[in-house]
Batch of 2 targets.
Target 1
Amino acid sequence: MSTQERFLEDYDPAEYPSVALTVDLVVLAVTGSTLHAPFIRRGMHPFKDALALPGGFVGPDEDAEHAAWRELAEETGLDLATHRAHVEQLATYSSPERDPRMRVVSVAHLALLATDGRSLPELAPGSDASAAHWKPVREVLDHEELAFDHREILTTALERLAGKIEYTLTAAKLVPEEFALYQLRHVYEAVWNTEKLDAGNFTRKMSGALIGTGRKVARSKGAPAAVFTVRSEYLSPPMARPAATSDH
Amino acid sequence: MSTQERFLEDYDPAEYPSVALTVDLVVLAVTGSTLHAPFIRRGMHPFKDALALPGGFVGPDEDAEHAAWRELAEETGLDLATHRAHVEQLATYSSPERDPRMRVVSVAHLALLATDGRSLPELAPGSDASAAHWKPVREVLDHEELAFDHREILTTALERLAGKIEYTLTAAKLVPEEFALYQLRHVYEAVWNTEKLDAGNFTRKMSGALIGTGRKVARSKGAPAAVFTVRSEYLSPPMARPAATSDH
DNA sequence: CGAATAGTGTCTGTGAGACAATATATG
DNA sequence: CATATATTGTCTCACAGACACTATTCG
């Protein structure tokens, strides 16, 4: 029955060849109300001239998540100890034909970077031509050819994020540690690709999970906005069911 | 840098050794109001005498999901063309130390089998001693040692299912195509490990997604229950946000 | 002052949960 | 009839969305 029982005994490399293991990264950050991700324009076969997600091999002494963090650091050149980031596993893509050159199985990861909403983190400072560049995600999906199964990975990442911010505060991972509500609102608008969320209702809905710092920040026009922090109970793997009555 | 760009050029098997790829299966079915899953008692090192999830290698010409279906069929001996089943990917476990014998990366899958709530599908009819046996999942978690990282896989599977049935009709995958509401209610009670859900409220909440067949089925005591089918819009990857106004 | 924006107040509709009431079966 | 269960009815509460209103800033 080929259970794990038979590892050493029956393992036949001809029948069960090993595979190369990689990670692919969907790194997201928001400017204005638009989602951006780094892409690499491929310079050679296969999928020459198409866009690809950054990624790389999983080393012999690390797991996939570690490889994702490492690639993220290499790609962005960010000091991730300082710059807040969120990495989570998305799904694993293992079709035998996904890379025509060899059998490559990839564990796709979603990474979220905090921005102030006005600029994107600089990518791989001082690297060569094949480095990654930030591109608006929807435009890429609409107008660009994507290499391998990266279109599927990308759309899965967007759907996952769109769903997750409905019932968690994951959106706060895309915003500085201290932020005004309009910044968080712009994140929701970017992820949901929607026009305008009602600012009043948004404020009310979020306020329960936030702590005011007492400070305010001025904008170019209008009243200054209060600065908040996420209440610690709502951070990290934020409780999936906050106000649930625990039964039903 | 290490992008996929450098595959053929820089690929150094010493630096990036390949890995064995397997699937591990959490197969769930309900009897009464209790969740059960098949486990295999290990007969040899490592984790001798501990319980393990069924699983097996991913073949050279199949992807992980195909391997999961294949292992499910081999393990249960079920004709999956007939017997309804649901398989979805859970997560990938890739710690270098997860199997002390060699580097094994496993794509964990969740499989749901339909039952009438009174009996479990027979497992691997006519196989040897190391075959899998149905065991109540909570008791296993409370009282048994689990091999490898299978405890983590199992708890992840339960949490995922518990969350998913909140906003989808995935629970219907654990019940026959035509079913009475008490059967579906028992599934919720099993997955949420809860005493009793209010039958009246449960009926109301579900009825919108169901179609009555017009038939009724008698129970040992009490009024007969109406037989339903899941409305097709609510099946498969059931709509994640049914009554959502699409713009928050 | 006029425009833009933050944050609050109000109203309404929906849906969940507690619980009662009614209907229908078994023994 | 006593008991168990299904299904419907009611009431209440919480929350989301629409929208008006006030307050605060810039130019």
Note: Chain B has two domains: 13-163, 167-230.
Target 2
Amino acid sequence: MLASANLQEARPRADAGRFRSMPPSICQSLLGALELTGAKMPFDRNAEIYGENEPADYVYKVVSGAVRTYKVLSDGRRQIDAFFLPGDIFGLELGDEHSCSAEAITDTTVVLVKRSLVLAAAEKQSNVARLLWSHTARDLRRAQHHTLLLIKSAQERVAAFLLEMAERLGAGGALELPMSRQDIADYLGLTIETVSRTLSQLEGAAAISLPASRRIVLRDRSALNRLND
Amino acid sequence: MLASANLQEARPRADAGRFRSMPPSICQSLLGALELTGAKMPFDRNAEIYGENEPADYVYKVVSGAVRTYKVLSDGRRQIDAFFLPGDIFGLELGDEHSCSAEAITDTTVVLVKRSLVLAAAEKQSNVARLLWSHTARDLRRAQHHTLLLIKSAQERVAAFLLEMAERLGAGGALELPMSRQDIADYLGLTIETVSRTLSQLEGAAAISLPASRRIVLRDRSALNRLND
DNA sequence: CGGCGGCTTGATCGGTCTCAAGTACGGTGG
DNA sequence: CCACCGTACTTGAGACCGATCAAGCCGCCG
């Protein structure tokens, strides 16, 4: 379901060559590399991009929209590991299988390149190898930060989430969230009701305002920061 | 406090050379590389090995004993990110600073090598670069697994912890835990009382027995596995 | 024997979940 | 344009799990 005709036709050798001949300034970022060699692909809202334990043949970058990666426990509980926003890279694995499932949160377009091409480039160029490492290291830092969230109170988790999103969406005081309350709940390890209630509390405390359910204005950042750590 | 006299005298160029001339079979693992080039260093129980945000000048491997890495929130709550047992590598960072603090849980000896040597070797040899990536990727998988733990009930967390330790300590049915109840609690995001109570419950349910507080015998693994996922 | 640190156990409190309505919004068809 | 519907979200009441506060216990070492 992933591989479109023109992806199949990609020629590893030629493309590996493209990596080798790239000027360093472009090779500086996997993002740049992805942009040059990748194929664009659209996904509908809630469409699966890949499933846990499926072969990890491609590396992805969000062009527009948003993506969630998650795991599901046997009893149905879902843990969202991360959200990916435009510019973010996801699906990069050391092993041959994806460790999480990935879905489009809204209608989304991604670019993707064959993982084998990236690995081949890393063999030849140490700066590409370092990029792979640095992306995984960044994911690790985010995962550790996420772990820290999960030991906090509901208010602290929600406040931290809002601040994280404000930073990553680059919005000044007004957020336009792509994800549902259920997504937020599954990211923060709370229930949808607790997320909703906590947002209402924060609004009552004048820390935020909620002109629409997905639109959140940060009114008092210092109050949120106080909750954050 | 880290740098002993003979570490200061280490010569990067010579040691980088040693990496280059190593037979591939040894270079296959960072562990092997560490063993050859590393200096041994002992730490007392509860001694700090490095602190969060300190320069990450060395990479460590546990020889004997056990190590915890952790973060502390401003209000004093502590989150243990990981436990490291003999054979485990820790303290490897992409950036120049440690993202966690590290302490010896019991009297511990580690071997360490300068991070700069490892990085230099990775520049020259793509298989070393891949090793760095693979260690960070392993840490990432563990962190994701840890995140999954934190959304579960107390029983499930404790059961998962016991199974993880049984696997990593390689003990058949009997565990000799190096860490205190407080360490376990801070790893699982619970209180010491809840950990203690939950262990008692599991003993009452005949899933484990507790001949001594740090010694735990797994009596019914399938019962623990049922709790685990 | 006394004291101390680590652990267990008990009683109560409180935050989050659960179950259950009720509300707002966007889309679709009349 | 409105009526209707379904989905997402909010709000309320009560139950439950784990935290908190408080003793007591155990093993170790002086």
Note: Chain B has two domains: 2-148, 152-228.
